């Protein structure tokens, strides 16, 4: 650690691993990749690094913007990965990605919608209904609101 310009920071010349740096590198490589398998591999490496919110044990206000930026990058990369896995026919792997996303963001309607579609493609109507109910419960508990019209409409289309 070095102190420079009134800030402490990791010495860039030291041999160290920093999960945020690795996450951003994997995400950048995924976005730049032209091969689908390579994109999925890099996105998977990035989201596997995430075990919780950035510096979640600290309540300082200065952390919030960076925490939110990284959280949104995680959600975006995870949804992209799940979509790629769906398109590649890797339904169970896509389902696993949705579950990883929902562990970190229990109110992500996009992840719930994708998960419902995956259950439908897998022929798991009970899983589809359970996913929708989980979405309802989560949104009600956090926001006091039902799922969006988009989510409700998708659910109705998928169960008929």
- Largest sheet data: 2 strands, antiparallel
- Characterize the quaternary organization of these chains: single chain
Overall geometry: flat
Succession of helices and strands: EEHHHHHHH
Rg result: 18 Å
| Helix percentage range | 55-70%
Indicate the structural class.
mainly alpha
Give the amount of beta strand, in percent: under 5%
Separation, N- and C-terminal Cα atoms: 59 Å
**Largest sheet strand order:** 1-2
Which runs of at least 5 residues are low in confidence (pLDDT < 50)?
A: none
How many strands in all? Answer: 2
Structure annotation, total helices? 7
Overall average residue pLDDT: 93
Annotate the secondary structure layout.
Layout: E1 2-4, E2 7-9, H1 19-32, H2 36-48, H3 64-87, H4 91-104, H5 109-121, H6 125-143, H7 149-159
Antiparallel strand pairs: 1-2
Helix pairs in contact: 1-2, 2-3, 3-4, 3-5, 4-5, 5-6, 5-7, 6-7
Explain what the structure shows:
The chain has 160 residues and is mostly helical. The protein is built from seven helices and two strands; from the N terminus they run ββααααααα. The chain has a two-stranded antiparallel ribbon. α2 (36-48) packs antiparallel against α3. The longest helix is centred in the middle third of the chain and has 24 residues, at 64-87. The protein is flat and about 60 Å long. The model has no long low-confidence stretch (mean pLDDT 93).
